[in-house]
Amino acid sequence: MSTRSTGTSAADSSAPEDQVTVDVEGEIRLFLIQTLTELFESTVDADSDFFELGGDSFTAMRLISRIQASLGLELPVTTIFDKPRVAEFASYLYGMLSEE
Q1: 81-91 residue pLDDT tens
Q2: What is the number of other CB atoms lying within 10 angstroms of the CB of residue 11?
């Protein structure tokens, strides 16, 4: 989700010409949904559970590898076992990125 506005009023004179707001956690959630859809070749949403989709340790390694390549986060494979729901895992990844 991105919003864009231009500051044209006198009250906005100190605001940047263009402001862009990005829902980073939502973008991470979308990335996970797309990645899991590719890995499982099935429909995935924010409430999907990694294990209910058929996830195993091999698929977890593939997922973590893609996360590391795309987001630059070093994660143990066991992370997905602790947070198997897409929305929960996205929130965790967002927190990790916010700490960096």
Answers
A1: 999 999 999 99
A2: 8
